[in-house]
């Protein structure tokens, strides 16, 4: 893999989760462009830089020791990547302060470097949170590969930060550079909320939650077929999002014990708040994690999962396949994984390679609900 070279450092970087012979690299030309732009401004070790949505630590690890850098984002895997890449390059794993997107970074900051996220609602929330956190003369620079840079990103910078101009394209990357100007105090439109009829609950969704405006159609297909009569089973909602699967299941299974995990800090925050609203003080474990990677073997009876089919801008079934493997490890013999998936993805065949029995529970024109028994 090529090294990330910038005026600040030369780094050997890996993606998370790690794949053998991973064809993708942990940085791109937009990272290089952001670092080169910052270097041209000749920052000092006293310059306070906030990095948002760093992909696996490419920006923050480059800047560590060169400026006062804080990193913030909504991905547990990206945060894990930052730690591993710091160590990989001879630095302490905690050499850069990381602030989950469920919290607000505390300034003032002289420069803000932003990797434009796939979800523009997350960008909007992050820009709103910068109110009162920027030093006089601060600059906010957002970078992306041109193919992933929507016009609305520049409009958001203009609305919440100040006058913005776009850079020339370099290696198919572009920067949006905004100078701070007084703006009316903005009230965040997040979290959003929607209600369900069955079960009759309201669901709160922070800015980066998948399908935050309404229930996604895969989950809608899954809900009527959640397992019943679970007794005191130990149940995990893997990739929990706003927690709807676990909450709906818990309402039907009052003795069951639940663990909710997601790699999005905002999803976990939403799930925890929704659980409390629907189930009060009933015990639950809710955590941001790399799926079930930290779960003890043979510690679960049931896993519920609506698996993702992309990581950031990369589409594929690698994460889903990894989640299936994690579920198998965590389940007791005889335990079951329940999933919903698009019919064309062929999950039945993949699950049959890991589990001793795969049963189709239900089907719709677009989705299939499967039960895989260990």
UniProtKB/TrEMBL annotation:
A Pfam family this chain is assigned to: RLMG_N
Gene Ontology MF, one: nucleic acid binding
Annotated localization: Cytoplasm
Domain of life: Bacteria
Family annotation (InterPro entries): DNA_methylase_N6_adenine_CS, RLMG, RlmG_N, RsmC/RlmG, SAM-dependent_MTases_sf, Small_mtfrase_dom
Database matches in Gene3D superfamilies: Vaccinia Virus protein VP39 (3.40.50.150)
Domain RlmG N-terminal per the UniProt entry, residue ranges: 2-181
Keyword DNA damage found: no
A single GO cellular-component term on record: cytoplasm
Class in the EC hierarchy, top level: transferase
Domain Methyltransferase small, chain residue ranges per copy: 201-371
EC nos: 2.1.1.174
Catalytic activity: guanosine(1835) in 23S rRNA + S-adenosyl-L-methionine = N(2)-methylguanosine(1835) in 23S rRNA + S-adenosyl-L-homocysteine + H(+)
Keywords from the named record: Cytoplasm, Methyltransferase, rRNA processing, S-adenosyl-L-methionine, Transferase
Principal subcellular localization: cytoplasm
Classification via HAMAP family: 23SrRNA_methyltr_G
Record-stated family: Belongs to the methyltransferase superfamily. RlmG family.
Function, in words: Specifically methylates the guanine in position 1835 (m2G1835) of 23S rRNA.
Protein name from the UniProt record: Ribosomal RNA large subunit methyltransferase G
Organismal lineage: Bacteria, Pseudomonadati, Pseudomonadota, Gammaproteobacteria, Pseudomonadales
Name of the gene: rlmG
